[in-house]
Amino acid sequence: MAYYAVYNTETSALYSIGTVLADPLPVWASTLEYAERPVGVWDAASKTFSTSIHRKTKFTRLEFLRRMTADERIAIRASTNGYVIDFLDLLAVAEYISISDPTTIGGVNALAGLGLIEQVRAEELLS
Q: Which whole number is the average pLDDT over 38-57?
């Protein structure tokens, strides 16, 4: 039995997965055929299903700060270092925190370099 993934031709957004296709297909639709039911997460860019585990790389400010311990947050806020203050200001105005952003990477590594968090914790925060 064949399975079909129906997706929007223009946006590549997945519309449905099933064994039956509309006849005729809507003008906006394209299909991919599979021998078995596809599993995983649809990736619109490659028009494939991925079963790999995707790690989260963007966090709200609260989510990011909660990744730290209370003792770490207190030590960081108590710092009078200009780079730490600047990093905290940037975190405060960001819509989200991306752990792949160079500013985030530099800021977290600076926290470790200044001894406000352990290096292993910096690596955990950025992974």
A: 81
**Confidence band, pLDDT 50/70/90 cuts, at residue 44:** confident
Residues 32 and 70 in one domain: no
My answer on whether 76 and 104 are in the same domain is: yes
* Number of structural domains in the chain: 2
**Which residues, including other chains, have CB under 8 Å from residue 5's CB and lie 6 or more apart?**
14, 16, 17, 31, 32, 34, 38, 42, 49
More confident residue, 92 or 39: 92
Write out the residue range of the structural domain in which residue 21 sits.
3-50
Same domain, 46 and 62: no
Q: What band does 113 get if pLDDT is binned at 50, 70 and 90?
A: very high
